[in-house]
Amino acid sequence: MGELKSAREIAQERANRLGKLSAEERAQQERQEYRQLGQALAQKWLHSSQQLDITAELNKHEGEERGIIKQAAIEHLIEAVELTTAQGRNSVKKIIEGISSLEPELQPEAEEIGKLVQEYEAAERRIKQELESDYRETLHQLRISGTAVATINIEADHKWQLARQRLVEAFAPRLNDLKQALVSSP
Length: 186
What we know:
The chain is mainly α. 74% of the residues lie in helices and 0% in strands. The chain has helices spanning 7-18, 23-47, 54-58, 63-79, 86-90, 92-102, 107-141, 158-184.
């Protein structure tokens, strides 16, 4: 049975067959590897159940390599912020902490994303409560009450889905602007 090879090993074998890489190609390949390291570091930070010192991990690298890894990690953390998933919203605090650890100057901008996500969640709760109230009133008028309607599954309703879609459409441009500002910050 053949041995499994990494993508890098396969790429290196192809490169050897085609000839030696130019200095520019080699530098580009190294930059890509550093970007992958940065993305992996951010992923590890996000999904680690134990406390990971992201700056200590970054400090294992030096010079241009360190800068590329840091930028890729920050970009990956920024991309992880989502309004449409509970996981994307729940990880915002950890994302802000990671960005602030990697680049303290970005903390105010990162915290703006946190505020926007909190604003979104408050608007989402308010819409849910309004819809639940409307449904309860309708059920009350139909004389349906008690344990039969103890909980109402709003999320399965078409009105909720439309309201949520409009809410996401209202907040997405602001979130994208904040993300873009973070990525383009020095």
